[in-house]
Structures are given as structure tokens and as C-alpha cells.
# Entry
Amino acid sequence: APTATSDPFASLNPAQRAAVEHDIGAAAARPLLVVAGAGSGKTNTLAHRVARLIQSGADPQRILLLTFSRRAAGEMTQRAGGVLGRIMGTSAQASLPWAGTFHSIGARLLREYAGRIGLADSFTIHDRGDSEDLMGLVRHEIGLGQTAKRFPLKGTCLSIYSRVVNTRAPLGDVLQSAFPWCGEWEAQLKTLFGAYVDAKQEQNVLDYDDLLLFWAEMAADAELGPELGALFDHVLVDEYQDTNRLQAAIINGMKPDGRGVMVVGDDAQSIYSFRGATVRNILDFPQQFSQPAEVITLDRNYRSTQPILDASNAVIAASVERHAKDLWTDKVSTIKPQLVLIPDEAEQARWVCNRVLEQREAGIKLKSQAVLFRTASHSAALELELVRRNIPFVKFGGLKFLEASHIKDVLAVLRFAQNPGGRMAGFRVAQLIPGIGPATAGRLLDAVGTAAEPALAVQQFEPPARCAGDWRQFADLYRTLREPGLRWPADIELVKNWYLPHLERMHDDAQVRATDVEQLAQLASGYGTRESFLAEITLDPPEATSDRSGPPLLDEDYLILSTIHSSKGQEWKSVHVLNVVDGCIPSDMATGSMEDIEEERRLLYVAMTRAKEHLHLIVPNKFFIKQQAQMGDRHVYAQRTRFVSPAMLKHFEQTVWFNADTARSNKPMPDSVRLLVRERARNAWK
Ligand code: ATP
Ligand code: MG
# Structure
């Protein structure tokens, strides 16, 4: 048998070690908070703790590990498995059945407890699009659609509703603080939300927020709370700064004494307050249980070189809030982060490509390089240039997989089979059949919704005569899908075969779309059941282009493109941040309140602290801004982000770049660039 090679805990520093060893061997572990800056090894420590717990006899089945994304859960499980392998001297992977996001774990628990809390276990989950559509529909039904012209749009209504649920704040407060322009509609919004909730319950559907809300309500229940808590000996949470009130309530309800609870986070990296997350959770943690929590801080950064750390620390230190953390590192380097001044976004794309290739020449794999940006659409120019130059890349964040109509169609059929009461899915499916419009679809759903045997109701439904043939085919499919014995993923094959002819009829580019459907089917085959597939794909849709196109690419070398939000927790040797200008970071969509601006500063801090050795902040002088509808999109002259103040320039090396074409066109450069060129020319000899 293989033997343990080395002590994986030996590499931990004393503070990390204290967190890993916290109350090991005690009858029960007191609550523990690790609060520490970027790259200080929080996630790493968490993974080691999981391994240590298992080593000391904890049952992996009874460890709840909550992470920010499915990918993060996978990585953490793998890391813990690696450590465990080294301790135990086996290659055995840690199998942690309860590792995942709050939402996906919530979905699983609700499925198991559905009967106990008055839910039918065939419930389906609405994605953001479905939820908006239902909100829109309800709004229309109660008459707010037609009469009130200036009534907030369905998407805004859903955001308000979601804020209220996730922050547990009264509607009036939420309106005042986050949606002041909707304040006059408070009474109507109340009515609307009431009707929206009724509609969800009638149809047996849950939206994202419900997964947390129902879980929190169960956790708060005198009987169910302890029962849920007793499922787990250990509850560990990464990125705790980005959890909201409901999530804190869930932990608190399940573990009122905080036994076995460990959370890690960094208040300087809180970037999800627009979704109701609050750093208060970290601040309140030490006192929220019936016994005080132990708090451990880590101050050594293992990720970045000193110059990168200096620049990042300067950016966050200017924050009006207090992030009492001074990170240090022993990674000396003479390479300062670069501030690259560039004429426009096209040049930015070229510059990044040049630099990326240069670095690859110098031995830094594409995979060890990332390009980060504020919003998914900001990488458009770069993507074109990458394709033109044959540089492979994978993009994370902002993928619109679930928004493609053909993907929605297939999922709707599966959801309608799962939950015949779900009207959004049913409505969509019925209208796939040629000759069936909204009126007929509505009639069908009324019949199916009240039927004891939905498949029979579909069978007996009488559509307009001209679609009888197509209808019969659908009814047959539906009956098969409703049969209890049918094995997954056979369902999706049936749906696919039924759907492809319709696809051809509806779309000119049916072939491209058919490939997507194939990919969806492939993805589906990785899941054990229809429910788990539907829940996972809805909660955590493929978020990278590679998640869609399958494994082959994974062996190759490719550049990483990612929104800053999706880059959380990760690291690369070299990082490029695009559009580091006012109007982008901070976004001009930020309302201008101080809290919003501060969140944008933290966003830049998160981006910068992803870099291990090379960091480039790129400042295009002209920047394309999507304006409000009436003003049209346009290019504007932009300024370097306010978060890099003149006093901080000493932390950067400045590069001014414009290629020959631009120079020849002899466009006047703004003063800032001209002066810099002159300045650099003057200092060149030094
Ligand atoms: P973030 O705030 O960005 O999520 P983090 O605090 O979770 O960062 P990790 O991702 O856990 O930090 O660790 C950052 C890097 O430092 C990783 O490459 C990790 O392997 C390394 N690291 C952490 N602790 C040690 C250690 N004791 N010795 C050597 N390397 C370490
Ligand atoms: Mg981390």
C-alpha cells in the first residue's frame, strides 16, 4: 500500500494551523471566523480543515461545505482530497456529498423535506428569465401593466422583490435606499408581490430566492431547525463576505450554538451587495451564536509579489471603510504593476494580445494568464482580436446559455413533464406546436393544471383541427415522459428527437442550434436524475465557454477571460484588467451613493489581487459607453479610474502606447496622454 509522503500541514503558518486544528479532539468545535485579506490562504485553510476533520474521524457525509459556485465546490473538494491522500497515504478522493452553493444545497434539502413543509416534491425552479416573465404576467393580470405607464418594468419589480426577501428589510426601506425612483409605487408593488407569491405557490414553482427563504424558514422552525442542524456535524462556508441576511439566518437557525460552524471571508472583497449581500454578516458573526466565536486573522499573503501587494493595498487603504489588514509577503520582485495608457478599446485589444503572446514566449502559459473586465460585454473587441490571431480562450461569466430560445424550449418540455402545474414552462411548450397560440395554450394549461392525471388531460385535449397530428405526437411524448419508470437521461433523448424537426421548421440556423441541443443532452447525461439536472442547470448554468464545448479543450492551453465577479477566489500569474477608467470602474451605473462607489473600489481590489507576478491595468483614453436609450451608445473620453489617485502612481510603472496607424492619423491626444509621453521622454535617460 502507498504510504504517506509528507505532512501536508507542515507548510501551514501558525495562524492557518490554529484554524485547521481549532477544537480538533474537543467534544464539539466552537464557532470559528477566519477573516483575512486576499491571497492569505483562507480557502486553502478551509480545505486543509476539511481534510483534518476527516482524518480525525469526522464523517464526510455529515460535512456541509458551502461555496460560491459549483466550480469552487469542486476545486475545494479536490484540494481536500489531495491533502487527505497525502495524510492517509491513499489516493482516495474526499467525497463530500454536501458540497455546493447555498442555492443548490437548498434545492436538495427542500426536495427531501417537501412533504413536511407543504410543497409538492415535483416543484420546478424558475431561472431569472422565468421569474421575470411570471412577474410580468402577474403584473399584467392585476392590471398594473396597462394602467400605470411609468410602473417599474418586470425586471425591476423582480429585483425589488428579491432585495426585500434577501435582506429581510421592509419594502419601504428597500425602495428608499436602493430604488428611490420607484418609491411612489409602494402600495401597488405590495399587491403585485402578493399576487406573484400566490402564483408561484399555485403552480408549484420556486424562484432562486425561495430556495434560501424556505430553507431559512425551516431552519427557524422549532422542530425542523434542530433536525436540519443534526444532519451536519460541521458547516463550513467560504467567501462569507458575500452572503446575505437569509444565508446568515440559515446557519444560525441550524446551529444556534455555532457548534462546528467555520466561516472564512474578507470584508475588503465584498462585491455582491447589489444582490443583498452584506459585510455585516462577518461583523456580526462573533456574537451571533449562544457562545462567542473564536476569530483568527491571517496576515501573510502567499499569492502576490510585494509590488502588486503594495499597489492593491494602496487602492483599498483609500477606502472610507476600515479594512484593518496589512498583508505582507516574502515574494520580492522588481516588477511593478503596469498602468497602460492606450488610445481606445481596439488598441487595448491589440496590446493585450501582444503582451499575452510575449509572455507565452517567456514561458507563461496562456492558462496562467487572465483578462478581467467589469461586464461580460466589455471583452467583445478582445474576443475578435483573439480569434483573428488564433489565440484560444475560454470565457467565464455572462454566458447566455440558458437564454437561447432553443435551450429554453428543451428545458421547458422537461420542466413541464416534471411539474404539470408550471405555467411558464407549459405555455412555452404548447406554443411550440404549430397552430397553437396563447389562447389555446391557456385553455390547455387550465385543463392540465386541474387534472388528476395530467398526461391524460393532454391526451384528451382538443386542439384546433389543423394541428391534430402534431398534437398527438406531443401527447405521446408527454405520456412517456410522465411514466414513472423512465430512466434519465433517456428523457432528454426523447425530447431531443421530438424537438429537432420543430427546430428545423422554426429557424434558419437550425443546425447550429441543434449542436447546442446535443451539448445540452451531453451535459444532462452527467446527472443521475431529471430533477437534479434541472435544478443544477437552472441554479448554476454553464458559466464558461468550455463548460459547453466539453472536455477536449481542457487539455489545450488557452487564455482565461472573466468578469471580475466570476474571478473571485482565483489566481493567475499574469492578470490584465480592461477599461480601468471612470465610467467603468466605478461604473456610471452605480447610483453615485458612497456605498456603491466603495463597492466598485473593492471590485478593483479583487481584480488586482488575482495577480501573482504580473499585473496590468489598462486605461483606454476613449471608451465605449452604452447610454440610456434616448441618448444612444457613444464613445466618450475617459479618465483613469479615480481609485488610482496621483499619489498612488508611484506604485505603478506607466506605459503609453499607440501604434503606428494611430500615430499617423495624427489625432490630437488629450493633455493627460501628451504630458505623459513628454514626461517619459524627458526621464528616459535616467
Ligand atoms: P481570496 O481572498 O482571493 O479568496 P484566499 O485567502 O482564499 O484568497 P487561497 O486561495 O487559499 O487564499 O491561497 C492563495 C495562494 O496561496 C494559493 O496559491 C495557495 O496555495 C497559497 N498558500 C496558502 N497558504 C499557503 C502556505 N501556508 N504555504 C504556501 N502557500 C500557501
Ligand atoms: Mg479564497
User: Anything to note?
Assistant: The pocket of adenosine-5'-triphosphate (ligand 1) is lined by residues 11-13, 16, 36, 38-44, 266, 269, 302-303, 569, 571 (CB under 6 Å). The chain is about 45% helix and 10% strand. Residues 548-553, 662-666 have pLDDT under 50 and may be disordered.
